[in-house]
Design goal:
The protein is of the alpha/beta class and 208 residues long. The protein is built from six helices and 13 strands. The strands form three sheets. Strands 1, 4, 5, 6, 7, 8, 9, 10 and 11 form a nine-stranded mixed β-sheet that branches. Strands 2-3 form a two-stranded antiparallel ribbon. Strands 12-13 form a two-stranded antiparallel sheet.
Amino acid sequence: MKNLTVVQNPLVKRDITYLRNKETKEYQFRLALRRISYALVNEISNQFALKEIEVESPLEITKGFKLEQQIVLVPVLRAGLSMVTAFIEMIPDAKVGHIGLQRDEQTLQPVDYYYKTPKNLDISKVIVLDPMLATGGSASAALTFLKNKGANDLILSCLIAAPEGVKKLEIDHPEIPVFTAALDRELNSNGYILPGLGDAGDRTFGTL
């Protein structure tokens, strides 16, 4: 798992506990998820390149920096939308695309139903947002789709990852870094992460 980064932060560990707790209310779940997303974007941003610029302060001209590369956020619908707010607040000039994938509950394979992203993916750093990396099928399909659209600098960010999903991405996309807040134990027979936190989309949007 050489491309896997698990964020090590006491506040993240606390908030993951909130997400796992079945008694956590929807608004508490959303707030904890957003706080974790801030931590993830901070960790991911260490990979961003900067370009030096001049800026004039009230007292003098001094050196400053701006991001060298366009950032594109691509949440995997629907659950990935829950991570967008924190990322866009930290990277306000980022562009946002969307990929719609849903899991076939019989085959556990992803089925796509929507795709729209900004242009110039080939010169952008593209961050795919998908809270749960379970079997890895949906994430791998999204990354493949984006590669076919020209993206060549990709990152995956998730809240919880299972070893099975991480291994699949190592096989399918070995060059793509994966950032997560927790690496869990395993998948159950239905393809859900254990101990996990249930369905992130349902718990975020109140559709249990």
